[in-house]
């Protein structure tokens, strides 16, 4: 049944202690899903806090499995990372997002940025920078249309290698966002050593704003430091008007969350952009 299939993946994602045979079969399922085009990309708007204008769309992968129904990335990304399949899967997302950015540009819906989550294994590929550069050329896109979302964990795995590649990507105009900020160990001062444009404040600091005094202090401090360091800010997981208002008073530039929109299939995301233009 659907439920059972889903549990199997969730169990794997949580426990990681399945047998070698089970792992092999999950890997085969993922490989087949890729061949059969079962992965799709949803898009969630990133919005200016002071104007409700959409500035970007984050690409978020889904697996539409004929056997297990719609699976969320948390159910299969861990397996993809463990098996190395995250590289071709990640390339699929990058390619889809660039292709879509071009379609939106041709519809005159620009200026619009697409943001794509990147795993450490992708950055570690020797040809990662060339891959991105060729993708931009293929779709005739300026680098600044693409924002790559990486985590502190990715930077810290191999600081020199990552910095080298981020510098090269920045020279192409590609934007770099630091995802899930605050959940790791780095300070903003340290992060500023890397060519990063945007900080994404993790949902765990946002969900109980402004009621939680600790998180209110943390987010207030982050906003004022980001301002001083000339970093752009996006707050994740904004669900309520009061969170939005609080972030607006802190001059947090952008928000992303269910308050404005959930991640949407591409047709619905496009409708949102078309409606916005005509109002
Ligand atoms: P993330 O990068 O932190 O993405 C934000 C997640 O928060 C998304 O979950 C999004 O649907 C969810 N979200 C957005 N706004 C709200 C809100 O207001 N409330 C709540 N409760 N949740 C909200 P999703 O799509 O399930 O993705 C989960 C994670 O999977 C992502 O977290 C990202 O780390 C990873 N992921 C998604 N797509 C990709 C991909 O193409 N490649 C890689 N490597 N990872 C991906
Ligand atoms: Ca992200
Ligand atoms: Ca997050
Ligand atoms: Ca993440």
- Major β-sheet profile: 8 strands, mixed, barrel
Number of helices: 13
> What proportion strand?
15-25%
Structural class, from helix and strand content?
A: alpha/beta
Outline, from the CA principal axes? globular
Q: What is the element string, with H for helices and E for strands? A: HHEEEHHEHHEHHEHEHHEHEH
Ligand list = ligand C2E, calcium ion
Unreliable spans: none
End-to-end distance: 45 Å
Radius of gyration: 19 Å
Q: How would you write the strand order of the largest sheet?
A: 1-2-4-5-6-7-8-9
User: How many strand elements?
Assistant: 9
- Helical content stands at 40-55%
Mean pLDDT reading: 91
Organism: Sulfurirhabdus autotrophica
Domain EAL: 23-277
Protein name: Response regulator receiver modulated diguanylate cyclase/phosphodiesterase with PAS/PAC sensor
Task: Provide a brief overview of the structure.
This protein has 279 residues and is an alpha/beta fold. It is 51% helix and 19% strand.
How does this model look, in words?
The structure is a single chain. The chain has 279 residues and is an alpha/beta fold. It contains 13 helices and 9 strands. The protein has helices at 2-15, 20-35, 73-83, 86-106, 120-124, 128-138, 152-157, 159-171, 188-191, 203-206, 213-228, 241-249, 266-277; strands at 39-48, 54-65, 69-71, 113-117, 146-150, 175-181, 198-201, 232-235, 254-255. The protein has an 8-stranded mixed barrel, surrounded by 4 helices. Helix 1 (2-15) crosses helix 3 (73-83) and helix 2 packs across helix 3 (73-83). It is globular and about 50 Å long. The N and C termini lie far apart (45 Å). One calcium ion is lined by residues 180, 202-203, 236. Residues 23-277 form the EAL domain. It comes from Sulfurirhabdus autotrophica.
